[in-house]
Design goal:
The chain is an alpha+beta fold. The chain folds into two domains: 2-97, no CATH class; 102-261, Trefoil (Acidic Fibroblast Growth Factor, subunit A). It is built from two helices and 17 strands. Helix 1 packs across helix 2 (77-97). The longest helix is centred in the N-terminal third of the chain and has 21 residues, at 77-97.
Length: 262
Amino acid sequence: MDCEGVDLFVSFESAYLKDSGMGFDEMDCSLNGRCDLHKPVKVETRTPHHSMRPVVKIVIVMHKMMKSYKQPSECSRRELHTFIMENVLEERRISSAKAGPRYTKSKVLPCSVCDQYQKTLIRSSGDLRLKAATLKGGNIEQKVRFNLCTYISPSSSVADSQPVCLGISNSSLYLACSRTDSSKPPKLELREINDTLNTIVANDPMGYDHLLFYRKESGVAYNTFESLKFPGWFISTTFEDFEDVEVSQKSVNSISSFMLNA
């Protein structure tokens, strides 16, 4: 049996008492003859690769088998073989089901972002945060320029929306919605990413799916940005100037509609 480059050998010691004279399928373990299937199953792995990942998978499968397998009253090679195959196939089906949808980069659109009350997104000095403020006159250069990266996916779960990433131009910083404590609400942060992000997979171990937002147009020029990782949480501003840009659930106390300017 081959498992992703690893040869798995399951051996059974079928040494019976020489004087039993009985065939395997005929033998009852309750008789005087002894069946070595009561001993642990021996497993050997052979692999030409240096990766330990396939070996770990096999150990997990065999651990599950040894925990749940109960010795039958009738010692049968066929029964044990069927049990092994059912458990190995079940483990492989579970691993395949964990693969999430893929998001492939499509286009990059340079833009600046302001909320529906004309507050522009700017960098906060001293930390990796964004603030929203009404800029006038000479302060206009403080506005942040973004590269809005659009993605396509065959399994987008939000109707009439498009997955996007918002990266700050000429930097490696991206807006990310993340949560370190499950008892607290998610937060919006700027995360440094040194990757092309050409493809993002849901439940990515690197956490790149935290960078994805569902962009949905509302009205003539307004857009909302809903976190892909935390549905129901939108990029939002407050009604006050120079307050942090956050993620929140839609309410009358926050502004979640934005305009994109070339």
